[in-house]
Amino acid sequence: MRRKNYKYKKKGSMLIECLVATFILTTICMLFVSINKGDMVSFKERERARDNSILLNNIISELKFNVKLEDLEEKFINNKLSINIGEDFNNKLQNENILNINDESRKKFILVEKVQDLENGIKLNLILKEDDIEILKYEVTKELWMEKRKKEKGIH
Length: 156
Known about the structure:
By secondary structure, the chain is an alpha+beta fold. The protein has one domain (2-153). It has helices at residues 2-65, 69-75, 89-95, 144-153; strands at 80-84, 108-118, 121-130, 133-143. The longest helix is centred in the first third of the chain and has 64 residues, at 2-65. The model has no long low-confidence stretch (mean pLDDT 83).
């Protein structure tokens, strides 16, 4: 009779061990999935921040070296200029003047503010906004030598 009780207890303890092992494996899988989900969110945020930084640096370079001060001054309205950014903005930037690009997207844009007139140029604030939330802000100085160097080298 003892043998039957022993076998019965062994079968019951195996069932409990299987349930505990299943619980542990499920907990580990859930932890792994939640960690990966957090990593993906973090990766997407870093990717978006990198893309915004590249975009703003491209616009800074374009304004500093490929736009004349006179053209920039003409486009200012109350010392401000808004550049709308669409999905194909970087491709358009390769072929068109930045001041002539006008995407219909109002979701994402660059606000260029004239901060100060200098004797050899102007100081600008460039603010990248998305859904009216300020994402990045840079202060840039556009100087006359940038235009003279372009003329001397015969760059269009």
